[in-house]
Amino acid sequence: MSACKRLVCLIKPRSLWAPTRRNVSTWSPVGTAFNARPLKRQDFFEKTVGLFGVPELSSPAGFQVAAQTALRKTESLVERACSSPAGVGTVECFDQLSDELCKVADLADFIKVAHPDPEYREAAEKTCVEIGTVVEKLNTNVELCQSLKKLLDDPKTLAQLDPDTRRVAELFMFDFEISGIHLDEKLRKEAVGLHVKLLDLNNEFLIGSHTPNRIAKSAIPQHLHMHFGSEGSFIQVGGLHADSPDDLLREIAYRVYLYPNADLMDCLEELLKCRYKLAKLVGYKSYGHRALKGTMAKSPETVMSFLQLLTDKLSDRTKKDFQMMRDMKKKLNPRNPELMAWDHPFLSGVLRAERFNIEPSLYSPYLSLGGCMEGLNSLFSQLYGVSLMSEHPSAGEVWSEDVRKLAVVHETEGLLGHIYCDFFQRSDKPHQDCHFTIRGGRWCKEAGRYQLPVVVLMLSLPHPTKSAPTLLTPGMMENLFHEMGHAMHSMLGRTRYQHVTGTRCATDFAEVPSILMEYFATDYRVLSQFARHYQTGQPLPETMVTRLSESKKVCGAADTQLQIFYAVLDQIYHGKPQNRSTTEILKDMQQKFYGLPYTPNTAWQLRFSHLIGYGAKYYSYLMSRAVASMVWKQCFIQDPLNRDMGERYRREMLAHGGAKEPMLMVEGMLQRRPSTEDFVEALVSELDPNFDTFIMDSES
């Protein structure tokens, strides 16, 4: 029986969802699954299958059982890797070892932030620590490293490896090297100590970067108290309130939220010193050089060249954008016209709204969640021959009743994997849009079959109501497409090794598939297939789509320059240590790479949580956008639904995960090797107003 037919048998005829009204036509099964409110299960005797179908995870205690099972298998695999002759089997053994640990660690990493039950979260957190400790030990296991080194040092054996196997072997060796495996025992212990210390510093900084600041109520005008949290005689400020129309509110939020915390400042300074010391210890010029090995950029020098050239090319446009903001602020607040850092997000939004009527509430009725999911299903079907099929989760399989499960099915290849969609708001759920790999794809030689990937997409959307489905703003819709880009990267890859599955690739390449999906999300030829009013069935007018696209170019140079500033700051922090504080560096870089004045007694860097997960790699968003722009313009702008181009995109860029050099994948798709100048030109050209199209659409 084919995988596709097996899947159909698994889908029960009864519905778990209460459909909302659609006056014009019937939703498809995938649309119905998302345009509805969940009904509670009635079968109380149905046997629980455990989270993600893992039987042990029917209770929090199961995490310990799953971890111990993985660790027993790990011991056996380590012994096998160390005793087997060097060859392909060595790499396969390493990958299986990695897979056994990742299947538990990745699942626990998700559950510790997403599960509504604190007992599950606590158990998952303990498992993450336990597995993390084992990984650190494995990365400093000399005998294990020698088994891989023996393979890589033997020219004859190495020549017999296929390119994917050789690259995975080199990536595993890189993991050993950055842990200091090649050092003598004393220095190796020092490297391990730095790793352990960095784990604590990273966690401390992440927590501190999201902790609110507080100030006495008496220091804040009383009419603004209602905008902040309250704690006795103090006001708590937990964000910048960047979109507030009240100038004073924005300024107070900025000054208080970014007020320096001495302990957190010490934490960041120590964190950066430890990263530099560790990088030097294992043989790199700086942490930036270590972090950028294997990326498209390859070195901090290339990154800084890219960011400086982009700054130079945007200079005139950025100045014009800031002048427009000054004029607007003077118009709105003549008594206080100076443009400050807290004005940028709000005033750029005002200018966009003034030039183009893009009020989100005008668009939302056309963008029901179910309609958007139907649109994604149609897009993937036309580009890749892939369908999204709604499945009913078994008892205990999901962590919340409103989680939807999708099977991804190819028209000839059958079932490719599963996507769990945790889309709706709930208390204690992180307010961020994320893609989590739960299980990576790999060929299981021992079982003679392919291990199908499993991922979770997490959003924070409003629930459907009795009278209407969940309606998305254009921003929410683009975020949905963006995250689904990550999911399809995981689904459409068919890598032999899970170590390089899907999004497990260079950071500056990993965002390309997701950003490319944003271009599809704003193309009328794609939107016209699904964007219809949820009550009347009327299509979203093309002029509204054009206005939305053009509005993004308003203040686009200033917005990009702000991202450049963040990326430069990240590079400087992770370069050679300087004899000055992180705040002095920020003040200097803000003047050179942003333009708006630094506000005394603020420390924005203490809220820069990306320094943890994206240390020395924040530039990746800009470089990935440049590549996505080039792919869109060269391959999809003429026909965004072209099947041949979709197949080529899958073959050249999505199929390999991290098993191929990222620049080689880009070169394969574009049929040329882009330069730094090409990246810059791609980003700058995006800001050119498409006046001819806009005038034509406005007149139609």
TrEMBL record:
Keywords, alphabetical: Acetylation, Calcium, Cobalt, Hydrolase, Iron, Magnesium, Manganese, Metal-binding, Metalloprotease, Mitochondrion, Protease, Transit peptide, Zinc
GO cellular component, as recorded: mitochondrial matrix
Cofactor annotation comment: Binds 1 zinc ion.
Reaction(s) catalysed by this chain's protein: Release of an N-terminal octapeptide as second stage of processing of some proteins imported into the mitochondrion
UniProt entry tagged with the keyword Iron: yes
GO biological process: peptide metabolic process; protein processing involved in protein targeting to mitochondrion
Pfam families cross-referenced by the UniProt entry: Peptidase_M3
Enzyme Commission identifier(s): 3.4.24.59
SUPFAM superfamilies: Metalloproteases ('zincins'), catalytic domain
Cofactor(s) it depends on: Zn(2+)
Residue span, Peptidase M3A/M3B catalytic domain: 241-683
Domain of life: Eukaryota
Function: Cleaves proteins, imported into the mitochondrion, to their mature size.
Family to which this protein belongs: Belongs to the peptidase M3 family.
The name this protein goes by in its record: Mitochondrial intermediate peptidase
Organism encoding this protein: Oryzias melastigma
Native organism taxonomy: Eukaryota, Metazoa, Chordata, Craniata, Vertebrata
